[in-house]
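seq as requested:
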Amino acid sequence: VQLQASGGGWVQSGGSLTLSCAASGVNFRLATMGWYRQAPGNQREMVATITSAGYTNYADSVKGRVTISRNNVRNTVALQMNNLNSEDTAVYYCNTLWRGTYWGQGTLVTVSS
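struct tokens:
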């Protein structure tokens, strides 16, 4: 299983960013996909998940600002983030639950105030 995350970068507070994750080696249509993040000195935390049926779950800290979506044709999952603030600065990891738990390599998001 390989998860290739992209789209991270630097953005000013209040700005938007979209992350994308391309999955291979997994039966994507059956897999729950998710985005997690880890800020310096903090534990990794869930940001958003989406099941194979399209049900979504969001961390309270991002509700209303973040949208997770999946494309079962392209085997990709995206994380649209709006109204970013400095507390969103972290390395963001793509995750899949399919016959085990797998992680991508992470992509850094830096929000400058």
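Residues 48 and 58 are 4 Å apart (CA to CA).
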